[in-house]
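Retry 2 of 3 after timeout on previous attempt. Resubmitting structure tokens to design endpoint.
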């Protein structure tokens, strides 16, 4: 019975996350309440609070779980990052996964167009993600730093700036695709082109080695 209860709680938690993403995408983050989420599932507000202490808690969990579904964990210390090619593959594959998964598409729409990122909210979310061992704003910078430690990337380069350029390019092109400025095929092409252009000199050195 205890096992069943634990499994049921996990399923309810997942349903709450799915419902929250749906309501966030339709109403916007600031206009959504726990009552809205609960009503979508025929639950009480208290049932939602039992799983998530606050709306920020729910948002952080959504971000964390979304990252695990994309090829975005490029800074793990388990040998995953070995070459620029592994980072490039992760960079492009993350976009392919968004294009193929309706839930990830919905999340990208929400996070780009249906949330008002105040300085306070951004700071709180980043702090919470850091506590969980994941800062989505630094993952590529961390990967590049790892490659510098391995001797693949010139140590004199600024890993933080390179990582932020990759992130800005990814986010910008994803937004363009979602508003119809570029096609899905063009999104992938431009991501590959942007990565290769940014690292073309480094890539040449890596090939020579």
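Retry 2 succeeded. Sequence:
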């Amino acid at each position: 019975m205890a096992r069943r209860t634990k499994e049921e709680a996990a399923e309810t938690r997942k349903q709450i996350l799915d419902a929250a993403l749906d309501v966030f995408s339709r109403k916007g983050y600031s206009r959504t309440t726990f009552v809205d989420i609960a009503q979508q599932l025929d639950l009480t507000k208290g049932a939602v609070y039992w799983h998530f202490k606050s709306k920020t808690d729910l948002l952080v969990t959504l971000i964390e779980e979304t990252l695990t579904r994309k090829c975005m964990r490029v800074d793990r210390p388990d040998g995953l990052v070995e070459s620029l090619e592994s980072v490039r593959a992760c960079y492009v594959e993350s976009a392919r996964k968004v294009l193929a998964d309706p839930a990830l598409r919905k999340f990208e729409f929400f996070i780009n167009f249906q949330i008002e990122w105040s300085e306070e909210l951004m700071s709180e979310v980043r702090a919470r993600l850091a506590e969980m061992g994941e800062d989505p704003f630094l993952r590529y910078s961390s990967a590049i730093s790892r490659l510098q430690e391995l001797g693949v990337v010139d140590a004199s380069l600024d890993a933080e700036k390179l990582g932020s350029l990759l992130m800005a390019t990814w986010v910008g092109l994803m937004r363009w695709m979602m508003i119809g400025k570029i096609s899905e095929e063009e999104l992938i092409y431009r991501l590959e082109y942007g990565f290769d252009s940014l690292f073309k000199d480094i890539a040449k050195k890596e090939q020579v080695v």
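Attempt log closed. Residues 55-208 form a domain with the Tetracycline Repressor; domain 2 fold (CATH 1.10.357.10).
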